[in-house]
Amino acid sequence: MTTWTGFTPMARIEVVIDGEQVPTIRDLLLASGATGYTALHGVSGFGHHGQHEGRLLFNDRNSLSLLISVVPLERAEPVVAGIRRLLESHHGVVFVSETNVSRPEYFRPVDGEAT
User: Which structural domains are found in the chain, ordered by start?
Assistant: First the structure.
């Protein structure tokens, strides 16, 4: 991976899940020390379980969602381990990649928060 001057390496975690699992994944991310996430609802695509349409039928729990979070590299493994345990009994997929951020303080918990 390219080293970018003035940027800090971190882990980007992306999870595609059924909308009903968003609160569980969100809580896991935050409890594991992630300082935030981005949620995209109504995700469409094709995969192991066939075609998924992006339109919302009644609410965001009836479609796929994509949660994206960035954590310090040393926090990635325990976060991903928890997500993988959840995915043993639910549909979904997790992607982990190294990324670089310009404001690393945004992605590190302040003193007293989850570690």
Answer: 8-107 (3.30.70.120)
From CA 16, how far away is CA 95, in angstroms rounded? Answer: 9
Q: Which residues pair with 41 in a beta bridge?
A: 65
Q: If DSSP codes are grouped into helix, strand and coil, which group holds residue 12? A: strand
Structure tokens at 19: 């909308």
pLDDT (tens digit, 9 = 90+) per residue, 58-104?
A: 555 557 899 999 999 998 999 999 999 999 999 899 999 999 999 98
CA distance linking residue 86 with residue 84, whole number of Å: 5
In the chain, the amino acid numbered 70 is V
- CA atoms of 22 and 36, how far apart (whole Å): 13
Q: Which two tokens stand for residue 11?
A: 């882990």
Partners of 52 in the β-ladder: 45
Counting beta carbons within 10 angstroms of the beta carbon of residue 74, is it exposed (0 to 12), middle (13 to 18) or buried (19 or more)?
A: exposed
